[in-house]
Write a structure and sequence with these properties.
- By secondary structure, this protein is α/β, with parallel strands linked by helices.
- It has 2 domains: 314 residues, 3-Layer(aba) Sandwich (Rossmann fold); 103 residues, 2-Layer Sandwich (GMP Synthetase, Chain A, domain 3).
- The protein has 14 helices and 29 strands.
- Strands 4-3-13-12-14-15-16-17-18 form a 9-stranded mixed sheet, sandwiched between helices. Strands 6-5-7-8-9 form a 5-stranded mixed sheet, with helices on one face. Strands 19, 20, 22, 23 and 24 form a 5-stranded antiparallel sheet that branches.
- A hairpin with a 4-residue loop joins strand 8 and strand 9.
- Helix 1 packs across helix 2.
- The longest helix is centred in the first third of the chain and has 18 residues.
- The radius of gyration is 23 Å and the shape is globular.
């Protein structure tokens, strides 16, 4: 049994209907149950009067109902917005207010105090608290419906919504079905939050091929032995994660092919894949494939792919991010013709239609190239032997533990605190890897008195991964000759203080 996204229907329904489709953090469901619940949820959408193009909030973590709800939204061409329980309620309210969403699907046994007009729970219970107002919250396009909006970190202090359409999803599925080499026997290990589009790669491939999706909650993952026991129990065959997540397990005595014989593919995305990590993995899992993929959220999950073989490891100290997906075009915009690297641009049907209600940024980042949508990634890259290499960001956006973070957003939030007159956030790096976020702040009050209230303030306003590792109080910022804040000097002064 599997799901055909091009036809919006379950196919081969007579084959293995009792096979596990989703192993959630709360319960497992088989393919027959998945089909039944998706159809029932579609009926609930109809009963609630949700119009096409209205953004429905899906709230939860790693419960079985979350990917089920995503599939129901795709089945009915309903736009959805994934919201993880790790989000502070203030951030959730900001997204709800911005989008005008009137409907929330609650996948948990708890519920944040959000006062939504329409609530659907994981038991398919529909609650209408008051008459929903859909008039100003419909953003669909009949010819190419808006499938989802994923909110990422925004430089203005507000999250920005990346809009992905139905056609972009189908373009990714067409490519990944062939290029990734998965099949119906695969069991996909899923650990990234559903607000991080890495997780969608597992969902789409599992449902397309008729495989099994194994969800792993954050609390479980913190106990490495319990997490590995779960992989063994379900015989997971595909590991999808950021490289830094896999790195946490490289020294675990049970993280080997002899203990995890079913693991046959490691798929990495979300950040730079270190050559050394692959070298260790090749020794621990000599028969497994190592795949490296790249792509911003604006390019529908990932846009490039390459298998990292022993030859690739030996040939490139900095590993390539691969070859472009079929039907796309990737090119480099260089400041000077003689430069080797420049800003990477994506073009094709997989590219987002733009940010939600952010026309100024859309004009800066999106444009048409040969009649196709194109996106300036902000990543510096170059081609060598037809292979693409990425060497980092050209702006203040960074990735840490796979999460994309706008440093300016953290600073903007800090400046909302009544005790702070100015703030700047800097990433402390080792090579290209972000090791720590440091916020430098200026205040007229006692720093030690302010510090705890700042941390509490941030924890209510941004996800946990955006809370800086340190807050450094300074009397003034150093400036360069061009009258810009000298961030290098800030870091140098900070490290000197640490050593002193």
């Amino acid at each position: 049994m599997k799901y055909a996204f091009h036809n919006n229907q379950f196919t081969e329904t007579e084959l293995s209907p009792g096979k596990i489709a989703i192993a959630g953090s709360d319960r497992d469901i088989d393919w027959q149950t998945l089909q039944l619940k998706v159809m029932q949820l579609a009926d609930v959408f109809s009963e609630a009067g949700v119009p096409s193009g209205h953004p429905v909030i899906i709230y939860g973590h790693k419960e079985h109902f979350f990917p089920l709800a995503i599939l129901a939204c795709m089945h009915t061409n309903t736009t959805y917005i994934p919201i993880d329980t790790i989000y502070p309620e203030d951030r959730i309210r900001t997204i709800i207010e911005a989008t005008g969403s009137q409907v929330i699907i609650n996948c948990t046994d708890k519920f944040p105090d959000l006062d939504m007009p329409v609530v659907i729970d994981f038991n398919l219970q529909l609650t209408i608290n008051r008459q929903p107002d859909f008039s100003n919250a419909v953003y669909g396009n009949a010819s190419d419906p808006l499938q989802y909006i994923i909110f990422t970190s925004g430089s203005t202090g507000e999250p920005k919504g990346v809009r992905i359409t139905r056609e972009s999803i189908r373009t990714f599925i067409d490519w990944s079905t062939e290029a990734f080499g998965f099949d119906g026997s695969d069991v996909f290990m899923n650990q990234a939050p559903f607000t991080f589009d890495v997780s969608l790669c597992d969902i789409l491939n599992a449902f397309t091929h008729g495989g099994t999706l194994v969800l792993n909650a954050t609390e479980l993952i913190k106990d490495q032995d319990r997490f590995l026991d779960r992989l063994i129990r379900y015989k997971c065959s595909v590991w999808t994660s950021t490289p830094s997540f896999a790195y946490l397990f490289l020294r675990h005595e049970r993280f080997t092919a002899s203990i995890l014989p079913s693991m046959k593919t490691f798929l990495f995305m979300g950040e730079e894949l270190p050559n050394r990590t692959c070298g260790i993995l090749r020794k621990l899992f000599p028969e497994a494939r190592l795949l490296n993929a790249y792509g911003p959220t604006e390019g529908t999950i990932v846009t490039t792919l390459i298998e990292i073989t022993d030859e690739v490891i030996a040939s490139y100290p900095m590993l390539p991010i691969g070859y472009p997906m079929a039907g796309s075009e990737l090119f480099i915009e260089k400041a000077n013709h003689e430069d080797k690297e420049g800003e990477l641009v994506l073009s094709g049907d997989h590219v987002s239609i733009g940010y939600f209600k952010n026309e100024d940024l859309n004009k800066e980042k999106f444009f048409l190239h040969k009649g196709k949508r194109a996106f300036r990634t902000g990543d510096l890259a170059y081609f060598e032997n037809d292979l693409l290499f990425c060497i980092g960001r050209n702006d203040d956006q960074v990735k840490m533990h796979g999460f994309r973070i706008e440093l300016n957003e953290i600073s903007a939030v800090l400046c909302r605190h009544e005790a702070i007159s100015d703030a700047v956030t800097v990433a402390l790096k080792r090579g290209n890897e972000v090791k720590k976020l440091i916020s430098f702040v200026i205040t007229q009050e006692d720093p030690e008195t302010v510090r705890e209230s700042l941390i509490a303030f941030l924890e209510k306003a941004v996800p946990y991964y955006m809370v800086p590792g340190d807050i450094s109080f300074v009397s003034a910022f150093p400036y360069s000759a061009s009258h810009k804040i000298d961030k290098k000097q800030l870091i140098a002064d900070y490290l000197e203080r640490q050593l002193g």
